[in-house]
Structure formats: C-alpha cells, structure tokens
Amino acid sequence: MFPIERPRRLRRTGALRQLVAETTLNPGDVVAPLFVAEGRDAPRDITSLPGHVQHTLESLSDEVRALHARGVGGILLFGVPATKDEVGSGAYDDQGIVQVALRRVRDEFGDELVIMADLCLDEYTSHGHCGVLRADGAVDNDATLDLYGRTAVAQARAGAAVVAPSGMMDGQVGAIREALDAEGYVDTVIMAYSAKYASALYGPFREAVGVEIAHGGDRRSYQQDYRNRREAWREARLDVDEGADIIMVKPAMTYLDILADLRREVDAPLCAYHVSGEYAMIKAAAERGWIDGDAVALEQLTALRRAGADFVLTYFAREIAEVLQA
Ligand code: PBG
Q1: Which of 250, 274, 283, 318 is an active site residue?
Q2: Is 84 a known active-site residue?
C-alpha cells in the first residue's frame, strides 16, 4: 500500500489539538451590546433577544460589573429614548439617555473595560431612519453628517472611549473625526461600521430599541447590498482614509468572505458584529433542543476570529465568557 498522509496524527489527543490550534477566543475578544432605556424604573425583557433587557441605569451598572468580572473586553451602548423627533435630538443632547448612561458607567469603570457608544440617529428619529429626511422623504446625507458630529462630541464629552458610527452615510467618519478633534477629543477612537449590509437579521434589534421604519421603508439606499463583495473593500478603504481606527463587518456569519477580504486588504483592526438575528436563531433552536446553543455559539464566534476578526461584538458576550472560563 502507498504511504498515506496522516493529518489525523495531530488530532489524536486534546493536548495535541490544543497545541496546534490556529485560532483563539478569549473573553477579552468579545464586546457586549447593551440597551439602556430612559425613564423606566425596572428593566424590561426583550422577547426576541432572550437573556437581554432594556436596562435602567442601575441594572446597566450591575450588568457591566458582571461582564467586567468575567473579563469581557468592552460594552457598546444603545439608547432607548422616552420621546423621538424628526431630527433625532436625543442622540446629541447632553441629557440624552446614552450620555447620562455613559457618564455613570465611565465614572464607575473608567478605562477598565472599553466603553463604546453606537453613533446613529435611528433610535431617536420619529421616522426610524438613520439620518434626517429631505422634503421628498429621502435621507439627506450631508445634513446628517452635522448631527453625527454633534453626537460624537456629546458621547465623547460624556465618557465614550470609542464612538461607533453605524449609519452608513458617505463621509461620516471624516465628519466625526473633524468634529472630535475640533473639541480636543483627539484620543477618542472611531470604530466604523464600514461594511454594514442591509440585512434581514436586524429584526430583534429593532424590537430591542423600538424602531420601526416609517411607511414600510427600509435602509437599502444607505446600507450595502448583500450581493456585493468588492464594494465592502471600497467602503473600508474610504473609512480608513477618513480616519477610522477600527473597521467593522456586519452581520457576521454570512459575511466571512468580506471579513477575510478586509483582513487581507486593510491593516486596521477588524471587528465582526454577530447581530441580533444571528443570536436569536441560535437561541430559538437551542430552546427546542435541536442544537447545543453554547457549542454553536462557540463555533460561530471562533469562526469569526479564524476569518480575520480581531474581536467580536456579540449578544453572547456574557455567556461565552462563562463557557470559556468553565
Ligand atoms: C443602527 C443599528 C442597527 C444595528 C446596530 N446599529 C439596526 C439597523 O441598521 O437597522 C443592528 C444590530 C443588531 O441587529 O444586532 N443604529
């Protein structure tokens, strides 16, 4: 018989497999998205994101403490305002819910873990779009940039170490960098949602923040078309040129090709956002006993690291940190 190659030799024992493993996943490689609601006296469950709630300021502190104790790398804050308006003013008001929450969390945790704020208007606009509207109902790119700049400054002033623009407006990173620098926030990091696709996987998130896009609208005039791959590279290159410190791909599992491309083509740190629908699918199947939820989560998050992500934003942050420590 011919001498066959035996790759299985290296898979014989757990110790050997550990020694030759190419990819690691640690609690410090995950960041937890968290929701904080204005004017509520008790946390409220989010049905389609089991295990997640709209936090009060108190329950938010408790959650951040629990995440920090487990070694989770950071948090990303989203606000749920009590009222909305046409121009999303809650996003850049110094008394807006995210600013209030940022001050509190930064006060308590300082730089012990990385405090990030999502930077967008959709949670705060009455029409649910990520920018302000022109008279004809289209999203006004350049008028929106001014408001993103104001939001970035308000978030930085309140204590965000990282601002994460997610609105997919052209020129947003440059406008935000300029606004931050003009106010002296030269050390505030910009993590750009660079390749953010118009995805059907954001449903549970929209329940979480109470966003409904007016008139059955969608975000396809600003978020990317999932048929496109080269376009992601272009978006990422523009963001880096405009001053992005970290770039992101979103959603995650159906975009591993994009992650691998950007890892190769761009030298900025790379993040993957394992989004609400991805979390919900695993939770729903696990609840029925059809899959082992922890095992699937571990496999998916590790695969994102393998494809090139330096860290992962995930609703599994707390659970996976527990699994990894067990
Ligand atoms: C927009 C924003 C969205 C998400 C993060 N930032 C929703 C959207 O683009 O409609 C989705 C996150 C998720 O689904 O987990 N501010």
Answers
A1: 250
A2: no
